[in-house]
Amino acid sequence: MPSFDDPLFATYAIAATLMALKVMGQGWMTVYRMMKTNRGLVNPEDLIPGPLNRAPDPAQLDLDDYVDRSRRMHRNDLENIPAFWVVGLLFVLTGPALALAQVLLFGFVAARAAHFVAYVTKQRHEVRATFYTIGSVIVIYMALHTLWSVLT
Fold first, then answer.
1. In this structure, what CATH number is given to the domain that contains residue 48?
2. pTM score > 0.90 for this model?
3. 3 state SS for 43-64
C-alpha cells in the first residue's frame, strides 16, 4: 500500500496535488474574469435575473476573449492533467529511481506552470506548444515505462 512515508509516493502526491490545485484554480480564475467583466456567460438560462445578476443583458452571452482565454486554459488542463494523474500513479507503482520520478513528476508540473504563463501572457503558439510537448513527452515516457515494467 502506498504511504506518504515513501519518498517516491510523496513526490507523486505533491505533484498530483499541485495539479489538482491548478485545475481548480483555473476554474476560479474564469469565475473571477466573468465577474470582473460582467461577461462570458455561456447558457441562455444565465440571463435569468438572480442575486448576482439582477439586470441581465443578452450581451453577457457574447464571446469575451478575456474570459474565454481562461476557459480555454481550463479545457487544456482537463485534456492533459488527468492522464498525468493516472499514468503518474502507475509509474510510481513500478518503483522507479526517486531522482527519475522527481525529474519527471516535477518536470510535468513545471511544464504546466510554464504553459499557463505562456497562455495567460498571450505568447505565440510555438511557445505554448513547447511546454505542452515537454509535458506530453513526460507522460508518454511514464506510460511506456509502466507498460515495459508490467510486460517484462
1. 1.20.120.550
2. yes
3. CHHHHCCECCECCCCHHHHCCC
